[in-house]
Amino acid sequence: MSTRVLLADDHQILREGLAALLNRERFDVVAQATDGMQAVELAREFQPDVAVLDLSMPRLNGLDASREIAKVSPETKSILLTMHTEEHYVLEALNMGIKGYVMKTHSVEDLGEAIEQVAKGKTYLGSGLPEVIVQAYFGKAKPPGDILTARERQVLQLVAEGNTTKKVASILGVSVKTAESHRTRIMQKLDIHDSVRLVHYAIRRGLVHIETPSHLEQ
Q1: pLDDT 10s digit of each residue in the chain, 218 long?
Q2: Could you tell me which of 56, 48, 55 has the C-alpha nearest to residue 3?
Q3: Is 113 helix (H, G, I), strand (E, B) or coil?
Q4: How far is residue 172's CA from residue 162's CA, in Å, rounded to a whole number?
Q5: 115 with 79: CB under 8 angstroms?
Q6: Which of 92, 104, 137, 159 has its CA 20 to 30 Å from the CA of residue 56?
Q7: Where in the chain does DSSP place strands (E)?
Q8: Segment 124-127 long-range contacts (CB within 8 Å, at least 24 positions apart)
Q9: Which pTM value belongs to this model?
């Protein structure tokens, strides 16, 4: 029986091309998502064996999407697809339960190997990652602590993407007052008190694309 795969990436050409290549191999791409929130909903519906998630996706990044997928589809194992090789990205991902870490510069054969290994319950760290990071993970090193909660990271991402507080509330299904409260706590915790610096922080954390506009509505 083929391994059932959920593929999530907001770049349509890349996602559909990758899906075609994986389907041509030995996998069954059962669903495709354009953002992290959709990935969670599709995981709930299809219960895939493996979810391949782009790190930088609109509305909900791949890392936080993997956490939510684990809640709605406990048997699904997640692989992060990214350009980042910095130690804190890798260690944070692996310590949050990501089972595979694959660079976008790798071949589809590398991704296929990652899917196979992860589906078997193994951890896959592909070539291209600095050896010191691999050793740090297996030596049980811990990433720098994140002072934000999962919900606060999600609000931060939505704010950094240019959404108003009202829009953030609508996306998350909460009141405007609750969304504003989250934003206020984020700024207090980070000691950041203007929107531009908040966007810069979100970019450094890999929560939004580098090209994300920094103009925010108030």
Answers
A1: 789 999 999 999 989 999 999 998 889 999 999 999 999 999 999 999 999 999 888 889 898 899 999 999 999 999 998 877 666 667 777 777 889 888 888 888 889 999 999 999 998 887 666 554 555 555 555 555 568 888 888 898 888 888 888 999 988 888 999 999 998 999 898 888 888 888 888 877 777 765 434 344 33
A2: 48
A3: helix
A4: 15
A5: yes
A6: 137
A7: 3-8, 27-33, 50-54, 77-82, 100-103, 124-125
A8: 124/79, 124/99, 124/100, 125/90, 125/100, 125/101, 126/100, 126/101, 126/102
A9: 0.74
Give the tokens for residue 144.
């720098």
**Residue the block writes with tokens 């406990």:** 74
H/E element, 216? none
The single residue listed with the structure tokens 């050896």 is 131
DSSP string, 9-39: -S-HHHHHHHHHHHHHTTEEEEEEESSHHHH
**C-alpha dist (Å) from residue 110 to 32, 54, 115, 128, 167:** 20, 15, 9, 11, 39
Residue 135 CB-density burial (10 A; 0-12 exposed, 13-18 middle, 19+ buried): exposed
Contact between 49 and 77 under an 8 Å Cβ cutoff? The reply is yes
Tokens of 192: 């950041």
